[in-house]
Amino acid sequence: MDSLFARADAIRPVHKKRNPSSDRTLSSIAPHTALPKSLRPSSPSPPTHKHIKNLNLRSQLTRQAHHAARTKSLIHDAELLFKEDNGGMHVESQMERTWRVGQRDIAQGAGEEAAKGRQEWILDGGPYRTRYTRNGRHLAIAGKAGHVATFDCKTGTLHTELQLQETCRDITFLHDQSHFAVAQKKYVFIYDRDGVELHRLKSHVEPTRLEFLPYHWLLASVGNAGYLKYQDTSTGQLLVEHRTKLGPCTTLTQNAHTAVLYLGHQNGTLSLWTPNLPQPAVQLLAHLGPVVSVSVDPSTGGRYMASAGADGSVKVWDCRNWKGSVREWSARGGKAQLEWSAKGCLAVATGGTVNAYNSPAIKSTFAAHVPPPLFLTHPIPHRPLTSVRFCPFTDVLTVGHERGLSSLLVPGSGEPNFDSSEADPFERKTARREREVKGLLDKIQPDMISLDPEFVGSLAPPTKLTTAVHDTVDIPFARLPRLERLRVQGLADETEVAEDGRGRGDDGGAGDDNGKKQSREEREKRKMRGKGKSMKRYLRKQRKNVIDPTAVAIRTKLEKQKEEKRVAKAIEKGEVEPRKPSALDRFRRS
Amino acid sequence: MVKISVLQHAPSTHLPSRPGDPVPTSRNLDPLMHPFSRARERTRALNAAKMDRLFAKPFVGSMEGHIDAVEVLCKKPGSLNTVASGSWDGGIIVHDIAQRRPLRQLQGAHKGKVSGLCFAEGDRLLSCGVDSNIKLWNLAADGDGSTSSETPLNIFPGKSPFNSIDHHRSGPIFATASNTVQIWDETKSAAVSNITFPTSTETITALRFNLSETSVLGSIGSDRTFTLYDIRTGKAERRVVMQMRSNSLAWSPTFPTTVLLASEDHNLYTFDVRQLSAPSQIYKAHVAAVMSCDWSPTGLEFVSGGWDRTVRIWKEGHGHGPEVYHTKRMQRVSSSIFTNDARFVLTGSDDGNVRIWKAKASEKLGIVTARERAAIEYRDSLKDRWKWDSEVGKISRSRHLPKPVYQAGKLKNTMLDARRVKEERRRKHTRAGENKPKAERKKYVLAEQS
């Protein structure tokens, strides 16, 4: 009876799970159902560290991964809370061009508040240089003849106005609007907001350009002597001075994301400097003739750079790869002034016009040397145009020229959403004070400046020059014996050893694998054999265990001779057919 | 037609709507808007570590009164500020640590040193001394407001000098250590029972009742032993013989099976009493014998005081790098306890003072506002996050030590190193596999007996 039941398979536990794939209902619905897109997990779930045995460590890592994933999604959510929208100009039909729209039309089309950005200041005192504070609220101007002024450009209130009666070549704000530095005829001077001279920096001689690194509190200047000098404005000491050895320099700009300074020189060289390296971190020949302007793109974190030469050529570079420019063209009118905006719009001021180019076109590789599609153009009749600055967090571009300043509207060039903790155009007195103190507390040490700012807090890369001499222990490079060190570096002369080995093998005879077995007479007989030749003696004397080009050349020559001898011997014996000379032999490389 | 829109910030949205309102802030979390965020955070972490060391002023105050060295300290269960201390001169002082003044002074409570103190139910204090007497004192104020006289409520005479006393967690029972372990009832004048390990002839130096398994008793003796008793069976259950004798023991308040021993060989050991063959953790930092130890009521930390004139505060499970406290005038630390709120540490030393220390060296005493609390927590998390950074870690790890302690530590390291090298060489020159290295934890227990 039991066997019958068994054969019928009637005795089967009820609770046994049915195969899910055999569920017909489910399999019929499954292809037609899915989670709605909004409910689907947007990112892959954070990794589970199941391979880690230590439970404490595993749970800590898992917690960290979850935390990181949540942070990422929250950052994405935070973008929904942005208050402001990007500006921009959009054409509605194929035939229209944005550059045909003039400043008057843009100002009419803009809102009342934004239209105030379009202004003209007619000033005496020569070509002007300008500089905004980091929040875009305040503007400092310096005329060549010594007219210096700072003012609040939203309300139009003047902080100070000075007639310095001597050449002023550049101006920059320090950490905020309360101090500014002017590069004057002989030295750099620091003034406070009310125009009181606070410091004369005597070590900065004949400065031409100034830059302030806000997170490091460093004022950098470069001058006619070709020295790049860093002054710490929080402690007051001259941090370092680098001799560029490239003569007078009139081009200096900073990468706001790495605090690396970019210098353009008279011979067309472009060099990147950090305070902790006595030589440039990167040096490249960018132009034929002097470099007149350099600017770094803040919208990509300094990945792209534009440079202009005195011959009117403008080049856009990819800073990850310095092999040639991404795009280059020549601007009409000679020396061009360049500036990138926060949203990646490039302003080029040459001759009597200011041109603005928009982002994807200027950064894409293009072989022909033609200007990229123009976004906006504006003529300014007062040559020369000496400075272009975008105002942060607005769509305003300020151009300094011979007769004063003009500010234009470039829709879509400014970052619409500011962060109050970094730079707030609407900040008040207490907030400014607090930010000053916080900035001093968070001051980054100057030796942390490097081309890659992300190296802080990352793991140290494994050193390449360690080696396992024995199978188990890694001995640090510095403690290795000299020969091992040479071997690791690839400088050890391995050939010599091999040759010696072969030399011994050639000698033949019984038991000369280790010298002990040779009889005394034999040893004496062989002592000098074949070693007296001048070439061999040279090679022996040259035995320094380092690859030496002459020694290598001689050794290859000897090898070749030996090979020729061997072939000749073989031909003599009749083992090899001799090569018949051919007419083409004259082209053979010997 | 060209559509033009130019960016403009309406001041009304970015300025407070009424005077006195907070200024509206806006946030943009785009990493490009926050350059050098990592480097700045590291700077903040570095500052946090520096500030932590800058404000590390752990010494709160000292309480005087004893003529001779303080031998024993005990805290009153359920009270934050009442602590009793007994001295070599035979005096007992009950301190109020909040006001830093003595509540009761019992001069000449015993002849010779007071070797043990513990609180009993109802504001009474039990003390034992080398004069072979146990005395029960009433600490409560009398009806007329004055404290009661200097005569004890009761005297329990013993046959041999007592070394330690501990009260049962709930019942009216206490245990004393002399050449045997004796169990006493508060209402009876003679010992209820004597317990010894069958083969032992040692002197018991300290004993403690377990805090949750209340009938279990642990003791340490001069024969380098740690013994477990059960007063229900009235027998010694198990015994461990170690390399060197222990000076003090304490049961963990949160892990009932964990016991901490302060050993003469400069180390502290935690044992799991279910597994007595090896300590669960060795705590190495003292450079002389550890004289006393006590758990924090949280069970996450403990304090130890040593013959090297330092007090160390350890994290449970972290066998090295404890917090170190020392002063110029503090002598050998013979007793140390955590207070019941886990915020302070009390130490009694050879110079006759009872010192009060903060358990966290840089903690701010007094009212902490919510903003301050948030800043402290942020700094703590920064320190934890950047502790692998060489500079931050170095600042938060390094401690100044008195020169003799530092030199002794160096000498100790040299000796241990030499011993290790010798061991290695010896192993190298014996037949392979004959002399295997022993795990560090297995070295300290000689025998386990039951």
Automatic annotation (TrEMBL), chain A:
One of its GO terms (biological process) is maturation of SSU-rRNA from tricistronic rRNA transcript (SSU-rRNA, 5.8S rRNA, LSU-rRNA). Residues 425-434, 499-525, 556-590 have a biased composition (Basic and acidic residues). WD repeats lie at residues 284-318. Residues 374-453 form the BING4 C-terminal domain. Residues 1-50, 411-434, 494-590 are annotated as: Disordered. GO terms for cellular component: 90S preribosome; small-subunit processome. SMART domains: BING4CT (SM01033), WD40 (SM00320). InterPro entries: BING4_C_dom, WD40/YVTN_repeat-like_dom_sf, WD40_repeat_dom_sf, WD40_rpt, WDR46/Utp7. It comes from the Eukaryota. SUPFAM superfamilies: WD40 repeat-like. It holds the Pfam family BING4CT. The keyword Transmembrane does not apply. It is found in: Nucleus, Nucleolus. Residues 526-544 have a biased composition (Basic residues). PANTHER family: WD REPEAT-CONTAINING PROTEIN 46, WD-REPEAT PROTEIN BING4. Involved in nucleolar processing of pre-18S ribosomal RNA. This is U three protein 7.
TrEMBL record, chain B:
One of its GO terms (cellular component) is small-subunit processome. WD repeats lie at residues 107-139, 283-315, 326-367. It is found in: Nucleus, Nucleolus. It comes from the Eukaryota. Gene3D superfamilies: YVTN repeat-like/Quinoprotein amine dehydrogenase. Residues 8-32, 413-450 are annotated as: Disordered. Residues 431-450 have a biased composition (Basic and acidic residues). InterPro entries: Sof1, WD40/YVTN_repeat-like_dom_sf, WD40_PAC1, WD40_repeat_CS, WD40_repeat_dom_sf, WD40_rpt, WD_repeat_DCAF13/WDSOF1. CDD domains: WD40. Keywords: Nucleus, Repeat, Ribonucleoprotein, WD repeat. Residues 359-445 form the Sof1-like protein domain. Belongs to the WD repeat DCAF13/WDSOF1 family. This is DDB1- and CUL4-associated factor 13. It comes from Serpula lacrymans var. lacrymans (strain S7.3) (Dry rot fungus).
